[in-house]
Design a protein that fits this description.
The protein is an alpha/beta fold. Helix content is 43%, strand content 15%. It is globular.
């Protein structure tokens, strides 16, 4: 990294409503839209010889490459330099994808494993309903907790600990659900969120859709400390548009957290988004 390049950029900032209670994507519609791809994927996975040791060595190699990267050093410095009380004791990841079939997913897994080691975090949890059996074997071997139930990002954070949540290139509705489930100053303060940039989501989402698809994101954005990391990793598509978010504002407007309706979404856009992400 040259001396005149900024390692990360503090993003400064605007825009907002929600509706009722539809799941992001019902199991029925999810099965309908991607069952063909998944059947093919699982068949291919089951048909291949599975050498767990070789796969774990490959993940170790990817993790070493991540740890040696400028991008990872930026991440660690930034998370370490921001005061989080209590310190981070848990990492939760949504939407890691298919580890054995996609290098992007493998590098993102390596990033989380490297963060676990450098931050000295013991607990690491993956929420991914579409893992193959071999993917699950690998994550179990890496001492990761697996959650196969699709909670659609509605994770309630333990207020007695700080949790790092990683949502790599996930639909904005998952992030929105996470915020809704923890919609209070005390709960949000316990989250360090690595995900798509809030500023980019607010700017790129049509105003007519913002309230429904990202209402909680648009409301909290101006109170969020967002750092946009310079995308210096050699494979640019692995971490593009990813930012680190801290919810450490000292003051919110009166009644800011009063409105807390569970989000409801039009599934048509989500089906297209998840279809693109199913095999990444």
């Amino acid at each position: 990294m040259s001396s005149d390049e900024e390692p990360f950029v503090l993003v400064t900032s605007k825009r907002q409503k929600s509706k009722n209670n539809k799941p992001i994507l019902s199991r029925q519609s999810h099965k309908q839209h991607d069952s063909g791809k998944l059947i093919q994927l699982f068949a291919e996975d089951n048909g291949k010889t599975f050498d767990k040791s070789a796969e774990l060595r490959k993940i170790a190699d990817f993790t070493q490459k991540i740890e040696n990267s400028d991008y990872f050093r930026q991440s660690v410095d930034l998370v370490s330099n921001q005061s989080t009380e209590p310190p981070i004791t848990k990492i939760v990841c949504f939407g890691i994808g298919h580890i054995r079939h996609c290098n992007t997913s493998r590098y993102q897994l390596a990033y989380i494993l490297a963060l676990r080691r450098h931050l000295q975090v013991e607990s690491i949890q993956f929420h991914e309903p579409l893992l193959t059996g071999h993917d699950e074997d690998l994550l179990n071997a890496l001492h990761c907790e697996l959650v196969s139930i699709n909670i659609e990002g509605k994770l309630e954070i333990n207020p007695s600990e700080t949790t790092l949540v990683f949502l790599p290139h996930c639909p904005k509705q998952l992030i929105n659900n996470l915020l809704w489930k923890n919609w209070s100053a005390n709960a949000l303060r316990r989250i360090v969120l690595i995900s798509n940039s809030f500023q980019a989501i607010v700017q790129q989402t049509p105003t007519s859709c913002l309230g429904q698809d990202a209402g909680y994101i648009s409301r909290i954005e101006r109170h969020t400390t967002e750092f946009s990391l310079r995308n210096s990793f050699e494979h640019r598509n692995v971490f593009n548009d990813i930012a680190i978010h801290f919810f450490n504002a000292d003051h919110y407007e009166d009644n800011f957290f009063d409105h807390q309706l569970e989000p409801s979404y039009d599934t048509s856009e989500l089906i297209e988004t998840i279809d693109r992400l199913t095999i990444r």
